[in-house]
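Subject: Protein record for review, amino acid sequence with backbone structure tokens
Why sent: The fold of this protein is of interest and is recorded here as tokens.
Enclosed: The protein record, placed directly beneath this head.
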Amino acid sequence: PQAPAVYEIGSQVSCKTSFDGQQRPAEVVHRRQIGGGSSSSSGKGPGENGGANGAPQYMYYVHYLEYNKRLDEWVEHSRLSPITSPAELRKHDSLKSPSVLSPRASGLLDSDGKERKVTRNLKRRYDEIHHTAPAVEDLTPVEQTLEREHEEKTKVKNIQMIELGKYELDTWYYSPFPEEYASAFKLFFCEYCLKYMHSKKTLVKHMHKCEARKPPGKEIYSSLRPPTPKHKNPFAMFEVDGAKDKRYCQSLCLLSKLFLDHKTCFYDVEHFWFYVLTERDSCGYHVVGYFSKEKNSVEGFNLACILTLPSYQRKGYGKLLIAFSYELSKLEGKVGTPERPLSDLGLVSYRSYWTRVLLGLLRDHRGSLGIEDLSTLTAIRVEDIVQTLQTLNLIKYYKGQHILSVTPKVIEEHLKTYRLSQEVKIDSSRINWQPHKNVNPKKTK
């Protein structure tokens, strides 16, 4: 079929992606006029369907229905084609439904290849194993309203790219920068003080004057050497007080929101500690990632938000940040758990961390530990331990309580998937930190 002169917002289309060059089902989320006709970002403007002469030209912001929002992008009209066949339209409708759980795609088939009934327990286990976020309709009415408001406000990514140190990074999500920066195509960050600016020229001038070469706050951990042979530099951890170094922490939150879909704390940072992970070289300390922690968490959360920057992902730093949060919990004499909801990548990191830690302990103690023992040794909450062992089929529910069901052979089979020797490890004796006294400030989140 002939492509329309203009695609409406909400149109179901096929779009050639920039990440693999293939035609993928997509939805037009937004559009902006780049020439011809009269200016309009939505709805029809004068002369919109006036043909080649005088017809407006648009860039379209599309969401690929089979992929995460982080791959949404602006594309030219020429990369879009209409979907008209009933079969393709049905496929689009099924992809747009967040509650669809395809038995064939998810492996929910019985031994005869027949579709299994998707019970609540089966879907819960599928969601846990495959890190599936809950559908909007599964949330409470208040949560549904907040989620839809969030989706509407953040549906179009505002900043497309940033420069941070030696890295140029494509962003993933919308972030609420101040108005004068919110619509910039690219922002330039000082990698030491995290001040952001519009141009490379301004950044160069700033770097000549900026005296910072590390995060503010206290250095509470420093490794003597690179953690593994594949790492080039040692790493260090800094504790930054959101109340004392407010501007730095606000910039860190705005930066992290570019790579996190759900994050609510941007400017009210006073009630959080920020633990900033860095790599150290002859030039200074380069930000790798961070986690934040509420100063007084009634719910017992030992982590509020976590991010490893894309330039440092797949190097074990995510699990190192998680491990450090539990080391602090051990020093506090508490068990901890991360604040929910976790991002998709955050949940993957936690599942992997919990699994590796628990399998290592069960191997070393050869089944002599109970669930409470595991919690005491690791500072991991009992509920998180139970859910992790359930996904590994290492626990049974018997006479009202959970019982470990492990053998050395089963543990070794699981460990074949995980190379514990290649983990980035923390030497707890090198942590220079004391628990903070609760001051009971008013909670703001």
User: Anything to note?
Assistant: Confidence is low (pLDDT under 50) at residues 39-51, 98-133, 441-445.
